[in-house]
Design a protein that fits this description.
single chain; about 80 residues; mainly alpha; two-stranded antiparallel ribbon; 2 strands; elongated
Length: about 80
């Protein structure tokens, strides 16, 4: 029996089970020394968008997501 499927009261809690399982997955880390020139440009782009929004007194409500047309790499 999978203990993460049940809450403290002994009832099935699929939402908590899914959250625990996804949180326990190992995360892939990319160190800045492994970044390419294009990754550095993408990082600068995100910082510029954040500063631009702040400069116009806007608040970003979600993550900035975009794709590099040259490499097809998606930045999330």
């Amino acid at each position: 029996m999978d203990r993460t499927l049940y809450n403290a009261g002994g009832c099935k809690d699929k939402t908590a089970h899914d959250a625990i399982c996804s949180a326990s997955k190992p995360q892939t880390q990319v160190f800045r020394s492994d970044w390419t020139r294009r990754d550095n440009e993408a990082d600068m782009f995100v910082k510029m968008v954040k500063r631009l929004a702040k400069g116009f007194n806007f608040k970003l409500c979600d993550r900035i997501r975009f794709e590099d047309p040259e490499t097809g790499k998606k930045y999330l």
